[in-house]
Design brief:
Protein name: Glutamate rich 4
Structural class: mainly alpha
Order of helices and strands: HHHHHH
Strand content: under 5%
Number of strands: 0
Mean pLDDT: 74
Largest sheet: none
Radius of gyration: 29 Å
Organism: Mus musculus
InterPro entries: DUF4530
Length: 140
């Protein structure tokens, strides 16, 4: 089933496959079975009474569950890919912030200010929470 496998393959290629999960179950790797169990029951000529309806209902419900499984797998794979993108963006932001901090420390040393004095200034500025952006955890 190409639609099911494509997001999974993309997730694996991006290195975001969940650890310990293993390969997809066979039910999600192969196309659903063709036909209807009711056809086989009718052609056998067996008189099953209420069992036939029960088997047809079970078959239909299994098909519905399979469709939901495929849909959920696709959504989870898409979410995993999005998380990977966010992770890359976060790493980039953190690297930029680290570079900015290093540049600030260098400029502090050049101005004969110690890093401790600079940190004190930053703490006094950060005591006004309305003036700075909320932490990442707070926005979630």
């Amino acid at each position: 089933m190409v639609r099911t496998m494509e997001p999974w393959v993309q997730l694996k290629q991006a290195g975001l496959e969940p650890s310990g999960l293993g390969p997809l179950p066979k039910a999600l790797r192969v196309p659903p079975p063709e036909g209807n169990p009711g056809q086989a029951l009718m052609s056998s000529g067996a008189e099953l009474g209420g069992a036939r309806e029960l088997i047809l209902w079970i078959w239909e419900e299994l098909g519905n569950l399979r469709r939901v499984d495929v849909q959920l797998l696709g959504q989870l794979c898409d979410l995993g890919l999005e998380m990977g993108t966010f992770r890359e963006e976060l790493v980039t932001i953190l690297e930029e912030e680290e570079e900015e901090e290093e540049q600030e420390e260098k400029s502090c040393v050049e101005e004969n200010k110690g890093p401790e004095e600079k940190q004190d200034e930053e703490r006094s500025r950060s005591s006004y929470p309305a003036q700075r952006l909320p932490d990442f955890e707070m926005t979630i």
